[in-house]
Amino acid sequence: MKKTLIFGLLIGLILSGCQAPAMPMSESPVEPVTVKAETPAVVKESVPVETIEAMAAEPETETAEPETTEPVMPETDESERELSLADYFPALENSRRTFKGVGIEYASYSVRTEYTDGDRYQFHNNNGGTETVNVFEVSESEVRLVFTESENYSRLDRLAHATPNQERILLQAPLVAGHSWEDPILGVSTILRLDEPIVILGTELVRALVVESEEMINYYAPGYGLVKTVYPEHDISSTLDQIEYDLAYPERIDLVHLDESGRPMGTTVTFDIKTNDPLEARLSEALRRPSPEGLGLPAGFEINRIDKEPFSPAVSVDLGAGIYDIAPEEEPDRLRELALTLSGYFSASDVYFSVEGGDYDSGTLRLDRTEPFEG
């Protein structure tokens, strides 16, 4: 019974949350460049290229006596033992990893790296049913999940946050076969092997570290991180199938425009953003674009700061004084379009506006920063 409950909790993020963002979304096709991964852990077979004729042409005295040079020895188990936890769990900035699933629809998913700061990495998972933000802490002794937030469809920085009741330990030193540890969610985890041959990216053979937890087995490869997850009792698996490097991710946002009758109309667009790019700056650029690709906000429009507590229905947005460049006769409609757009993007029911830390006051319209916008 305990194993079934634990499995249910572990796979909950895969199976749960088919809810979409507040505004309807339409896909914008993107043609990312896929670059083949490079890693020292790839194992390949080599075949001599010398022809039989060339070999036969060599004098017998030369072929009989090999050169007395020092041989190049292959990597040993000792070199593998020197690999650190960070080698098995890299940040992979500006990348998107795609996993191919078997056994259930949501076993296929993608992972992109949004933010990094020292030993903390923020990954954004999308399995087609829901999107989840996970923050990991990678130390010399452990790789630990410290924060997770499902139904997160925006690019908010969560590196400083924590969800203690959902923390779990993915890897732990020493990296030797037989080492075990325990946490309340995954139960007992054990390193089974350090050099399991496994095929990833369609054709690449790597040597993976294998960790078995209750009802789940994870495979980690140096330079790649997690490359495969298997749930043996349920015939479900997810395997790394593609990596895109040097990626400026096309972040989607559903813009809201008001038609002549004042009805809101949604248009899905994208704006490019890389790992550690400030959301405020990239979002401001997108909203300044002319309609319908943007909201047509003034050239001086800037978002100074965005605050939204995890799982909160409210978002606070501090604007620069350039917002006051909106023509007075357009001001109510432009602010309403901005509020509806941000409400959808951040999945927030309440939007609070401030300007340079104070109340919004253009001379023709005043908004209290402590009260949600009602336009």
Structure summary, number of beta strands = 19
List low-confidence stretches.
Answer: 1-81
- Strand line-up in the sheet with most strands: 6-5-4-3-2-1-12-11-10-9-8-7
Distance between the termini: 52 Å
Query: What's the gyration radius in Å?
Result: 26 Å
Q: What sequence of helices (H) and strands (E) makes up the elements?
A: HHHHHHEEEEEEEEEEEEEEHEEHEEE
Helicity range: 10-25%
* Overall outline: elongated
CATH architecture of the largest domain: Beta Barrel
For this structure, the CATH topology of the largest domain is: YmcC-like fold
Question: Structural class, judged by helices and strands?
Answer: alpha+beta
| Level-1 CATH class name of the largest domain | Mainly Beta
Count helical runs: 8
Largest β-sheet summary: 12 strands, antiparallel
The chain-level mean pLDDT equals: 85
Proportion of residues in extended strands: 35-45%
Number of domains: 2
Can you characterise this structure?
- The chain has two domains: 2-22 and 80-244, YmcC-like fold (Beta Barrel); 249-367, no CATH class.
- Helices cover 15% and strands 36% of the residues.
- It is built from eight helices and 19 strands.
- The protein has helices spanning 2-10, 12-15, 52-57, 60-64, 77-81, 85-88, 279-288, 331-345; strands at residues 96-102, 109-117, 120-126, 131-138, 142-150, 168-172, 180-183, 187-200, 204-213, 216-221, 225-231, 236-244, 249-258, 264-273, 303-307, 314-319, 350-355, 360-361, 366-367.
- A twelve-stranded antiparallel sheet has the order 6-5-4-3-2-1-12-11-10-9-8-7. Strands 15-16-17 form a three-stranded mixed sheet, with helices on one face.
- A hairpin with a 5-residue loop joins strand 13 (249-258) and strand 14.
